Amino acid sequence: MSTSNKSLISETLVRRMLSCVSEYESIKTNTNPNFKRVGDWCKARGFSRQNFLKTYNRYKQNSVPSMLVPQKRGPKFSTRRTDLSVENRVIELRKLILNRQTIAHILRKEGIKISESCIYKILKRYNFNKLKNMENNERPEKKSFIVSRDDKILFIGQFAFCKLNSTIKTAIIPII
Predict the structure, then answer these.
(1) Are strands 154-156 and 171-174 parallel, antiparallel or unpaired?
(2) Percent of the chain at pLDDT above 70?
(3) Model-level pTM greater than 0.70?
(4) Which residues of 117-156 are buried (b: 16+ CB within 10 A; e: fewer)?
(5) How many Cβ atoms are within 10 Å of 102's Cβ, its own excluded?
(6) Using one digit for the tens of pLDDT, what is the confidence trace for 101-143?
(7) What phi and psi, each to the nearest 5 degrees, are found at residue 144?
(8) What confidence tier does 165 reach under pLDDT thresholds 50, 70, 90?
(9) Cβ distance 107 to 86 under 8 Å?
(10) CA-closest candidate to residue 172, choices 86, 88, 103, 87
């Protein structure tokens, strides 16, 4: 839909809603000859009382005609989206066959604060949430790993295992 069509629809909706606001206020003051109750008026106009009152109260708070147009619902993606460099780093770590807990720990060590659920959503967005979804050329060979429970670091293939702290016993850290 073009911008001119959107503005035309908005102007039409504002005019209609302004007339509805004045009619609603006349019903509330019992001066409307056609309707005695607001519920009957809403039914005749074809919208729910709840939605009209939400729009009416928003208009009364600001008294700007643009408040009569329905507002955007849902999250504002541009402000809440994870930074692209962080997303790329998550995908890079996932290609090393690391799970989301390990990826979260590595990113925290790098100073990036990110939750495991956010990592999962990033992986799902790029179709890396399941290893079988990854292309064969992107998946390294599966290797068996030996996990050490002491402070020694074990180098196995392309990964290093090390003890992180008392709660997390071991982690896979790629060797760069």
Answers:
(1) unpaired
(2) 69
(3) no
(4) ebbbbbbeeeebbeeeebeeeeeeeeeeeeeeeeeeeeee
(5) 20
(6) 989 999 999 999 999 999 999 999 998 888 776 655 555 555 4
(7) -90, 140
(8) very low
(9) yes
(10) 103
